[in-house]
Design a protein that fits this description.
The chain has about 120 residues and is mainly β. The chain has 1 helix and 11 strands. The chain has one helix at about 30, and strands at about 5, 10, 20-25, 35-40, 50-55, 60, 70-75, 80-85, 95-100, 105, 110-115. Strands 2, 4, 5, 6, 9, 10 and 11 form a 7-stranded mixed β-sheet that branches. A hairpin with a 6-residue loop joins strand 4 and strand 5 (about 50-55). It is globular, with a radius of gyration of 14 Å.
C-alpha cells in the first residue's frame, strides 16, 4: 500500500513562511505519476485546489496564492513541496497533497496550517 507522508505544517504569524513536504513510499516512476497537487480545506468550507504541477506543461495556482506559494517536486526523493510565503490568516486550513497515478488518485493525511498572531 502506497503511503503519502506530509510534514511541515504548524502555527505561523501573518507574513511568515512555511514549507510543506509530501513524501511517497514508492517512487514516482513506479507509481506512474502524471501530476502532483496541493489542496486545502478550511473549517466549514469545501476542499480547494491550491497548486498543481503536471509532468509536462505549466504549473497552476489558485488566484488567492499566486505570487506567494510555489509548488515543486524532487523525483529523486519522491517528494512534492509547497513553499508558502507571506502567509495570511485566510490561508489557515488543513493542507493535503495529491498524486495522480496509474493506481488512481492518492491523498496524504493532511497537515494543519494556522496563520495567526
Amino acid at each position: 500500500q502506497v503511503q503519502l507522508v506530509e510534514s511541515g505544517g504548524g502555527l505561523v504569524q501573518p507574513g511568515g513562511s512555511l514549507r510543506l513536504s509530501c513524501a511517497a513510499s514508492r517512487s514516482f516512476f513506479r507509481l506512474n505519476v502524471n501530476g502532483l497537487g496541493w489542496y486545502r480545506q478550511a473549517l466549514g468550507k469545501q476542499r480547494e485546489l491550491v497548486a498543481h504541477i503536471p509532468n509536462s506543461g505549466r504549473t497552476n495556482y489558485a488566484d488567492s496564492v499566486k505570487g506567494r506559494f510555489t509548488i515543486s517536486r524532487d523525483n529523486a526523493k519522491n517528494t512534492v513541496y509547497l513553499q508558502m510565503n507571506s502567509l495570511k490568516p485566510e490561508d489557515t486550513a488543513v493542507y493535503y497533497c495529491n498524486l495522480e497515478t496509474g493506481l488512481g488518485s492518492l491523498w496524504g493525511q493532511g497537515t494543519q496550517v494556522t496563520v495567526s498572531s
